[in-house]
Design a protein that fits this description.
The structure is a homodimer of 165-residue chains.
Chain A lengths: L18 H32 L3 H12 L4 E2 H8 L3 H13 L3 E6 L2 E9 L1 H21 L5 H17 L6
Antiparallel strand pairs in A: 1-3, 2-3
Chain B binds a DNA duplex (30 and 30 nucleotides) through α1, α4 and β3.
DNA sequence: CCCAAATATTTTATGCTTGAAATAAATGTC
DNA sequence: GACATTTATTTCAAGCATAAAATATTTGGG
C-alpha cells in the first residue's frame, strides 16, 4: 500500500496535480505576497523620506560597493535587469547629481558610471535608514528563521540560475 | 552577563547596526532575488506560451475564484494593487474577449467584472500549465521546506498587515 | 586594408504601476 | 429637497521594466 502522498496513481488524469506541486505553488504565492507587501512599504518610505525610489537605491547600492564605478552592462547584469532599463535610471540619477558617466579609455562605445561625492554621502546615510526600515518590517523574524529562510531560498535560486534548457 | 546577541551596548555608535538587523536585511535581499528571478521566468513563459502576462493571469485567477464576478474595487484590494492599475489590465482583457463588464443594479457608479466563457476555458487550461511551471521552478523545494517557508513568511506578512502607525 | 561579426549602449514601443486629480453617482444631513 | 461628503471608478503624468531594433564602435578574418 502506497503511503507516500507525493507519489500518485499513474492513471491520475493529467488535469489533476500532485500535493507537492500544490505546496510549491502555495509557497510561491506566499513569497510573492510578502515581497510585494514589503516592496510597497519600502517604496512609500523611500518616496516620503528620500523623495526617491527603490530602483535608484539599488543602482546606487551596486555602485557604492564598486567605488571605481561600473559599466552599464555590469550594472544591468548585477541588478538582473535589462540594459535599456538601467539607461533610464542612470539618466535620472545623473540629472539629480548622484552619478557621473566617465568615458572609458580605448573603448568609445562604453562608459563607466560612478557615484559623485554627493551620491556617496547621500547613499551612506540612506543605507543606514533603509536597513532600519527592513529590520523593523522583519522584526518578527528571529535570527534562526532568517537563516532558515536564506538557506531554503538559496537552494531555490541556485536551481534556477542560468540553466535554461 | 548578557548572552543575547540582539541586545547591544547602548554606547554603540548609531552608524553601526546589529547582527540581527543585518541578518534580516540579508533575508529580505534573498526574498527579493528569488521573487524577481521566478517572476522573470514565469513572465517569459507566459509571453511565449500564452502571449499574455502575469498581471492578466492574476486578474483572471481572482475572477476564476469568484464566478459571480467582482467589482473593480474588490479586484484591486484582492490583488493589493491600485484602482487605476486594475482599470488598464481589465480594459486589455475585455479587448481580448476574456472579461466582460456588467452594470450593477441600483448603483450606476460601479460595475462588475467577470470572465467570459472563453476566459473561463482559457484560464482553466493556463492555470494547470502555470502550476506545472511553478512546480518545476521549485522542484528543489521539499514538502517540508515549503511548509517551513510558508510558516516563516506568514509571520512576516501578518506583522505588516494593515497596522500603519 | 576591408568588412563581417561581435560588443556596448541607447532608443523605441508597449505594458505595468503608482499617486493624485478628475468625474460621476449615491448618501446623509440640515 | 438642496448640498456637502463619501464612494466607485477612470484619467493622467511619471517612472519602471521588457524585448526588439537601431547606433556606434571594436575586433577578427581574408
Amino acid at each position: 500500500m502506497n503511503m507516500d502522498k507525493t507519489v500518485r496513481d499513474p492513471d491520475m488524469p493529467h488535469n489533476e496535480t500532485s500535493d507537492i506541486s500544490k505546496a510549491r505553488l502555495r509557497a510561491w504565492l506566499q513569497i510573492l505576497k510578502v515581497s510585494r507587501k514589503i516592496e510597497g512599504e519600502l517604496r512609500e518610505k523611500m518616496r516620503l523620506e528620500f523623495g526617491s525610489t527603490l530602483p535608484r537605491f539599488d543602482v546606487m547600492a551596486a555602485l557604492y560597493r564598486s567605488r571605481d564605478g561600473m559599466r552599464m552592462s555590469e550594472l544591468s547584469s548585477a541588478l538582473m535587469v535589462s540594459n535599456g532599463n538601467v539607461t533610464g535610471i542612470v539618466d535620472r540619477l545623473v540629472t539629480e547629481g548622484m552619478l557621473v558617466r566617465v568615458p572609458v579609455e580605448n573603448d568609445r562605445r562604453a562608459s563607466i558610471v560612478r557615484l559623485t561625492e554627493a551620491g556617496e554621502k547621500d547613499f551612506a546615510e540612506r543605507a543606514l535608514v533603509h536597513e532600519g526600515w527592513v529590520s523593523e518590517l522583519f522584526s518578527d523574524l528571529s535570527a534562526h528563521d532568517a537563516d532558515a529562510l536564506i538557506r531554503i531560498l538559496r537552494t531555490v535560486y541556485h536551481h534556477n540560475e542560468a540553466h535554461h534548457d
